[in-house]
Amino acid sequence: MRELRRILPETVTVGVSGDAYAATGLNAGCDTWYSVIAGTFPEPALTLTRAAQAGEPDRAQAESHRLQPLWDLFARHGSLRVVATAVAQLGLTSPHNLPLPLRGLDSEDRARVAEVLRELGLHT
After folding, report:
1. Which of 7, 20, 35, 95 has the most CB atoms in a 10 Å sphere around its CB?
2. Are residues 54 and 95 in the same domain?
């Protein structure tokens, strides 16, 4: 980050994308996190972000570690498909909410998303 700050104009912000790397990026000094989960699950996103902003890197990493089962689903299926499944399970959209040609998850993987949401306390 120091090197980036040195070579980039002050008007440029540096962000982190890829929710599994949010704590690392924010703890390293990124200005922002381009989050997949924040719109659907703002509480854990705020917990992680506020910890990093408060200079509490261990707390930010702990929240990221707690969310690891979700990050694992993202790595396996893609964050878009997992969040689309989650919002459908929360009743916020219809079950078939992705535009063609995108495909949703199969029933086994949808069940795993539901299980992870329950484990993380992210269900309604």
Report:
1. 35
2. no
